[in-house]
Design goal:
The chain has 57 residues and is mainly beta. The chain has one domain. It is built from no helices and 4 strands. Strands 1-2-3-4 form a 4-stranded antiparallel β-sheet, with no helix packed on it. A hairpin with a 5-residue loop joins strand 1 and strand 2 (14-21).
């Protein structure tokens, strides 16, 4: 898996956004070879988190 990301934040908060690209020789996971996932992940100053990943089509 290769990826690119941007990390930003103030205080104890942080925000990550980026893309993941897959390359595998595994037959079970071969459909990932044509996939790109966009992701976001947030950490609030109180420590709570949220995030997700979405297939780029």
């Amino acid at each position: 898996m290769l990826g690119e990301r941007i990390i930003e934040g103030k205080g104890d908060a942080a925000s990550w956004r980026g893309a993941m690209f897959f390359d595998t020789a595994s037959v079970k996971l071969s459909k990932l070879n044509a996939s790109t996932l966009m992701f976001e992940y947030e950490v609030a100053e109180d420590g709570s988190t949220s995030g997700g990943a979405y297939e780029w089509k």
